[in-house]
Every structure is written in structure tokens, then in C-alpha cells.
Amino acid sequence: MVVCAVVLIVSVWLPSLNARSSVEQTLARLEAAMPAETSGQVGEDPAASLDAQGHPVMSALQIDDESYIGIIRIPSLDLALPVQSGWSEAALEKTPCRYMGSILDGSLIIVGGDYPDQFGQLENLRVGDEVTFSDANGRAYGCRVTRIDNPTEVDSSYLVSGDWDLSIYAYLDSIDRYVVARCSLA
Fold first, then answer.
1. What is the pLDDT of residues 68-106, one digit of tens each?
2. CA 185, CA 44: separation in Å to the nearest integer?
3. Rounded to an integer, what distance in angstroms lies between the CA atom of residue 102 and that of residue 69?
4. How much is the pTM?
5. Hey, what domains does the chain have and what are their CATH numbers?
6. Quick check: helix, strand or coil at residue 42?
């Protein structure tokens, strides 16, 4: 019975440890590839081309086979995570992803997975907490959480409603709801 318990613990713990190590390696490589941080302002890149939704296209950096638009930092949750440029279920298993929008026009929405080393702790975020998004060009956008919602369902129209510079969200099994944190530039 002890052997079964050890096998079970190792089979659950080891993949989680490997995933965390992979994210930390990606984060380190992304930080090394990004220029030195400067303070970013919404609307400072008017020459950016527009995506299909009419948002300015954000620069991205290639790390292995993935494209990353930057890094999200949430000090109160002790999180610093790379953010992929596009989202899919497979991508969410690795890191948070850009769901839609752009930090360049103050409409960025980032979705994360319900994992302890990702957005699984999002329910512990509080109004007033600091969130920083650093884009691939090294521009850091310092924000404060100004609102937190816990809807049972979300869709694109809900996520784009309101005037928020940055929104981050995840579905959390532990509370059987979404956590949607709305942030405004500090």
C-alpha cells in the first residue's frame, strides 16, 4: 500500500514539477531576450498594424515553437509568467495566453489555467493589488486591480465590456466560478 501511495504521489508531483521547471526556463529565456524595461503608456505605438478585431498588433518573441507577447507579474500571488500570443487549450496547459485585445490600446485580456503555478490562486487577488504586464519590447505597464467579479459564465462580450486596460481571468474548479480581475493603469 505504501508503494502505491508513493507511485501515486510521484505520478502527480513529477509532471507538475517538470511543467514548473519548463515555465521557469521559458520565463528566463524570455526575460533575456527582452530589452531593458521602460515605462509603457497606452497608445504610444500608433504605427502598429491592426489585428482582425481592430486592436494594435503586439510584438512577440519566439521561444522554441511558441510565440510570447510578454510577461505578467502579480507580486501579491508571487507570480511571474510568460504570456503566449494566442490561446488554445493546449497552450493554457503551459502558460497564460492572450485571449484578445492589446495592451497598446488598453484592451488586453489574458486567460490562465487553474493550476497552482498559474492562475489557480487568482481568487486570492484583491482590489488594489499590483499587476504588471511587460511587453516583448520591454515596456512595463503597471496596473492596479480595480474590480474583481466571480461570474458562473463568461463570453467575449462580457470580457470586453467596461473600460479596463487589462483583464485577467480563469475558471477555478475550487470555487466553481470564474475569477475576472479588471485592472487600470496605475
1. 999 999 999 999 999 999 999 999 999 999 999 999 999
2. 14
3. 10
4. 0.84
5. 2-185 (2.40.260.10)
6. coil
